[in-house]
Amino acid sequence: MTRRSGRGGRRPGSPDTRGQILEAARTEFARSGFGGTTIRTVAAAAAVDPALVHHYFGSKQQLFEAVIDPPADPRAIVAPMLDLPREEMGEALVRQFLALWDGPPGHRARVLMTTAVTDPTTGALLREFVLMRAVHPVLAAVATPRRERDLRAGLITSQLMGLALARYVLAFPELAKPTADRLVHAIAPTIQRYLTGEV
């Protein structure tokens, strides 16, 4: 006989529990963001004990990454540039971003971007993921004042995600044809200004 949790209304593990937790987490993260979501709120939404969430996914960060299912780990992409001189980080960020889209993870990235454009929940999750995992660590590395981080992060994200949408999803010829080096030359100064210049 399966032993039930002592908390009323909470289901024990079952074959579909992982999927139920993922769906609840998807809704909670999209509604409240990473900072406003807890393991307990996800567990409550899925009607399971919080221990089951930890059992299947470990930490809140691991749960968030399972919801997004990213094509690559942005921490591995961002990490090499964090020790660069501040004035080189804009170029490095654009170059690494384009290398991701032009490389093997590019197909999965295009699927995720296309879904984000048509599904507001996926869009909110992708925005939160890019900001938290890629953009904010770079801003922290250049010692951006906290009061400016949200604006600068939004500007950087809009520039990079807009480029990805136009080049890789909508395939605008003006952006799909140029080489990555040409785009880095054109866009990096703007990203550098968003990182360290006047906004």
Characterization of this structure:
The protein is mainly α. It folds into 2 domains: 17-68, Homeodomain-like (Arc Repressor Mutant, subunit A, Orthogonal Bundle), CATH 1.10.10; 74-196, Orthogonal Bundle (Tetracycline Repressor, domain 2), CATH 1.10.357. The protein is 72% helix and 0% strand. The protein contains 11 helices and no strands. Helix 4 (60-68) crosses helix 8 (120-141), helix 6 (89-102) packs across helix 11 (180-196) and helix 8 (120-141) crosses helix 9. The radius of gyration is 19 Å and the shape is globular.
Tell me briefly what this model is.
72% of the residues lie in helices and 0% in strands. With 199 residues, the chain is mainly alpha-helical.
